[in-house]
Amino acid sequence: MARTQREPSLWDAVIPLVALAGLIAASLIAFGLDALDGPIQVALLLCCALVALIAMKNGYEFAAVQESSRGAVASVTSAIFILFAVGALIGVWNLSGTIPVLVYYGIQALSAGWFYLAAAVICGVVALSIGSSWTTAATIGVGLVGVAGLIGVSPEITAGAVISGAYLGDKVSPLSETTILTSQIVGVDVHQHIKRQVWTSVPAFLIACVVFFILGLTGPDTVSDAETSSDLDKLNQIFWITPLALLPLLLLGYLSFRKVPASLALLTATLFAGVLGAFLQPDVYAAFVSGDGNAIIESIKAVWSAMANGFSIDSGIADVDRLLSRGGMDSMLLTIWLILGAVTFGAMLDEFGLIKRLVVPMVEAASSTGRLFLTVFACGFGLNIVAGDQYIALVLPSRIFKAEFEKRDLAPTNLSRLAADSGTVTSPLVPWNSCGAFMSATLGVSTLLYLPYAIFCYASPALSVLYGFTGFKIEKISQNSAVNQNPPVKE
Predict the structure, then answer these.
(1) Spatial separation of the C-alpha atoms in residues 178 and 134, rounded to whole Å
(2) Are 425 and 125 in contact (CB under 8 A)?
């Protein structure tokens, strides 16, 4: 006999969030930044078990709990493949000389005084061109953070600048899948959606650029020219420094621009770098696998090992070793564990009505436009925290608030801009969110350390909410209809 399913109570919805907050706080207090190496993952899985018990209390069978978990895992399958591909790419690009050459030229071209500003602008341009914040961070971003460590500027601030630029480009690029997804869900033409986003994205990025410029001028002294020269000499001794090593980067940019699926584009660029590096860096390949003289076998083993376990080297210079000894698919396993726990928790909250139970009272209490905008932001950012995935944080608010915006005569372009500001750009600020975990694993900087410097990621939503309270750039459905029905008469 089927059990009667009951609507969750307010306490049902609140208890898992309180438990999550308490367990994560306890893990951070007990383990510090090492909490991301397992304790927070355990906390998330314990919270999943708690939600399962609440669902069963409300009449759901355990089979329904299992089905929601399977759906959660399926939703991040593509992200998992991208993470594995990025791990392989970083390992092989270090082995083949792509990242060392990028760093070598970067040290010579970028001045410490305006390094943070340059990092943000470069990543913004790249992300705008290819429409992917993840690909931008995994390629140019990795190189820039490596340069920062060698010239003596802050890797944490550099990571914040990389993320600020990457998410500016991702948010306003017509090639970005999150931009397209947001406009489709809300029912807005993608180009109209991008035009409206410019009103928050560009001022927010300008604010970030001013901050990065000031940080660059007032930052700590850089390492001496002698130390920098020593690092450059060591890179030049280990690798053949040639622009040819940057061909994999150009290939990846081309594949991304052509909208080749991210995991396939990354793996293609990885394998291409592996083959190219066998000709450009044969001594590095042989030394990495302690070769026996067969160049072909050595190259295959080197690339295979770098893809699986990353590249490592002992050059005698700590900064160079720290830069190059990274990557590998296995380096992403902790990150994937984190994402699986977070997304499963969020999917279960949604499946069993706990999120809706919290959001509906918030909508009813939002009596003004400003409060409604603040509520949408709280929902988007909150879902990034509890659901652990930017797509959930984009899709649910866009669906939940669409009717409410229509009821209040607010044009859907307001919601599409606000949803992107609330869901997309705040996702890398949460350590266990798929984006925050990805950025931390890829750039080699803890989310909690780069968070204060990801200026764009909180300036953009702050401006969006501010517009709601002030009425600036807030469009009405009736106004748009009047304009469409009464076009200006040409004289």
Answers:
(1) 12
(2) no
Per-residue exposure over 47-75, b if at least 16 CB sit within 10 Å of its own CB, e if not = bbebbbebbeebebeeebbeebbeebeeb
Going by C-alpha positions, the residue among 489, 9, 453, 464 that lies closest to residue 198 is 464
Distance in Å from the first CA to the final CA of the chain: 75
Measured distance CA(425)–CA(384) in Å, rounded: 10
Helix (H) or strand (E) holding 479: helix 477-485
C-beta neighbour count of 226 within 10 angstroms: 8
Residue 343 CA to residue 75 CA, distance in Å, equals: 8
pTM, full prediction = 0.84
Q: What is the pLDDT along the chain (491 residues), one digit of tens a residue?
A: 456 788 899 899 899 989 988 998 898 888 887 887 889 889 989 999 999 999 999 988 999 889 988 888 887 888 888 889 989 999 999 999 998 998 888 888 777 788 999 999 999 998 988 888 888 998 899 989 988 888 888 999 999 999 999 999 888 888 787 888 788 878 888 888 888 899 999 999 999 999 999 998 886 655 555 566 777 788 888 899 999 999 999 998 888 888 888 889 999 999 999 999 999 999 999 889 876 678 888 899 999 999 999 999 887 777 778 878 888 999 889 888 888 888 888 888 888 888 888 887 887 788 889 999 999 999 889 888 887 778 778 877 887 788 888 888 899 999 999 999 998 899 999 998 889 989 999 999 999 999 999 999 999 999 999 999 998 888 888 766 544 444 443 33
Measured CA to CA, the distance from residue 361 to residue 369 in angstroms comes to 16
CB-CB neighbours of 38 under 10 Å:
14
**Interacting residues of 71 by C-beta distance below 8 A, sequence separation 6+:** 347, 351
Q: Are 425 and 383 in contact (CB under 8 A)?
A: no
Name the percent of the chain in helix, strand, coil, to the closest 5: 80, 0, 20
**CA 165 to chain CA mean position, Å:** 11
Q: Are 59 and 13 in contact (CB under 8 A)?
A: no
Q: Which of 126, 122, 162 is nearest to 141 (CA)?
A: 162
Q: How many H helices and E strands in the chain?
A: 27, 0
Per the CB < 8 A criterion, the answer to whether 349 and 51 are in contact is yes
Residue with tokens 């943000």: 120
Q: Name the amino acid, one letter, at 18.
A: V
CA 336 vs CA 60, 73, 235, 359, 438: distances in Å: 28, 10, 32, 29, 9
Say how many CA atoms lie within 13 Å of 407 toward its Cβ. 12
